[in-house]
Every structure is written in structure tokens, then in C-alpha cells.
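Q: How do we represent a protein-ligand complex in a form that can be generated cell by cell?
A: Start from the inputs.
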Amino acid sequence: MVVVMQEGSTEEQIQRVIDRLVSMGFDVHRSTGATHTVLGAVGVRSDCDPRDIELLDGVREVVRITQPYKLASRHFRPEGTVVEVGRGVRIGGPEVIVAAGPCAVESAEQIHTIAERVARLGAKLLRGGAFKPRTSPYTFQGLGEQGLKLLRQAADKNSLLVVSEVMDPSQIAMMLPYVDVLQVGARNMQNYHLLRALGEVPKPVLLKRGMSATIEELLLSAEYIMAGGNYNVILCERGIRTFETYTRNTLDIAAIPVIKKLSHLPIIADPSHATGRRDKVPPMARAAVAAGADGLLIEVHHDPEHALSDGAQSLYADQFAQLMAELRIIAPAVGRRIG
Ligand code: PEP
Ligand code: MN
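Then emit the C-alpha cells for the protein with manganese (II) ion bound:
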């Protein structure tokens, strides 16, 4: 359940409610908003009478949550979450944030060339995999730590932040100095061991929707991370498997407004993995921003014909430039802006 405290409730009153919830066997997560404090009570108690809490001083409202996720629920932070990534970049605020870069880091020259271009065109984060979850074990698996070093250098040189995929809890400590956001790939959305480990990490997590995951399952995966204390979760719609085979996946645009209603977490869209074809990436990116996405994750390559992975869905720099120009027109029409 979620306990909404009255505006101006005192620290003492809040503490008394927390103590009461703890004594009832709940785990309490606190969210201090601009106007009031909200307490998320997580636990297996279904027999608790909400009036016992409602009657305590300073309590405005007790909401019983029927959804299985609580911390990820919109009730927990009705005003929405803004994830601070660093260098003043905030995901979930008025600005639509674009992360762009190659599928994988391939070489110093490649990542520096792409970083310079996407930074000049308005991207705020540089993407690039150093650990690649490839469908075939015989294809390029990524440069590992060396790739992360190159990614960090290229990002720093161009005032960009870094997002890169983590595949296993054993990689987290090594990755932390190189990345600003840890990405959980679609294939790992239900790797609960990894999600729990990321709950203890002091950096934001970009959680991609699994290719056959429902919205509820995605939010429950976010709940795993948040239950560990890391509330800086950014969700990502990257397309799901359907009976349609023309595109690599089917971008579930409706998931964006649905998630906005169900959850306070920011949601971004990845039109590259969703469509698998560069000619379909710009229209889907435009649609996602129009639908209310807080950001985009886009694959861009300076020489896609020779990319070691996902070349066919990587935009050329001039296509990316055109897309950014279009997004600068679309974003204000839906009350947002692009930096
Ligand atoms: C990626 O973004 O590099 C990636 C592998 O995407 P997904 O996990 O969505 O397939
Ligand atoms: Mn890719």
C-alpha cells in the first residue's frame, strides 16, 4: 500500500507512521516530493486494515495498490520521476534526451568519429556495447573493458555521458568508473539476479523491455531494482515479438502512454532495435516523441556497411541530423523540447 502524508506533515509524524508500518511487517520506502512525502509499504500483509494507518496524525490518504508493483507505481510518486544522469542531463523532465551511437564499440577511430558527430547534432549520451548479447555465439561479442575505456574517452572528449550494457553482476564493479547509465538488455530483463545487484548500484539503470514481456512484467522488473534502493530506473520500449515479420520487432508505441499512466518512471524508446531497418527508424522515433517518450536510444554509425553488428539499422550521420531537426519541431508540439 501507499501512504500519502499531508502537506506540511512533520518529520515526527512521518517517523511514527514508518515505525507503525515496520512493526506491522512492511518494508518501507520513502519518497520526499516537493509538496508531500509518500511512503511505499511493501510486504505480504494482505490482512492489514488501512484505517489503522489512516488515523495516524499527518496522514492524508492510504491507497491500497492492487498492482503487484508498488515502488514503480504512479501512486508512489504522482509527480513523476526525473532521473539525474550527470552534467545537468535529466531524463523525465521537459527535455527529450537522445542517446546515440553504434551498436557496439569497435575501435578508437570508430567511436571517436561517431561521438563527435552525434554530440554536434544534439545527443546527450553516447551509447555503445562493450559486452554484446548476440544471438549467435560465433558473431562479434564486444571489446569488453577495452571497449568501455574507448567509449569513456570518446564521450568525455565530446561532453557526452555514457550508457552501456551490463550482462552479468560480476561486470558491475568494473563498469562503474566508465559508465553513467547501466543498460539491461531485452534478453536480461528477467535476470532477477542481475536486477537485484543493480538495486545496490549508485548509478541509473536503463531497463529494456524483454521481447516477449508484458508491460506488467517490465514494471515488476523495475520493482526488483527499486526494492534494492535504486530508484533511478529508466524504462525502454524496444519492440516486442509479434506475428509480423517485416520489421525486426513491433514497436509498441501504445506502451509509452500506458506506462506513463501506470508508473512514475521515465520511459524512452529504441526505434533501432524495434524496426531493424534504418529507413524505418526516423518515422518511429518521431512517433515515439509525439506519443510522449522522455528520450530515444538510436543506433548511429559513420560506416554502417562495415559495422560489426546491427549495421542495417544504424543511421548515417546525415540521417541522424535530419531526424534531430524534425524532432525539434515535433517536441514543442507536445510540450517538450530537445537540447
Ligand atoms: C542494445 O541496445 O545494444 C541491444 C542489444 O538491445 P536489446 O537488448 O534491446 O536487443
Ligand atoms: Mn544493436
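The chain has a mean pLDDT of 96. The first helix runs from residue 11 to 23.
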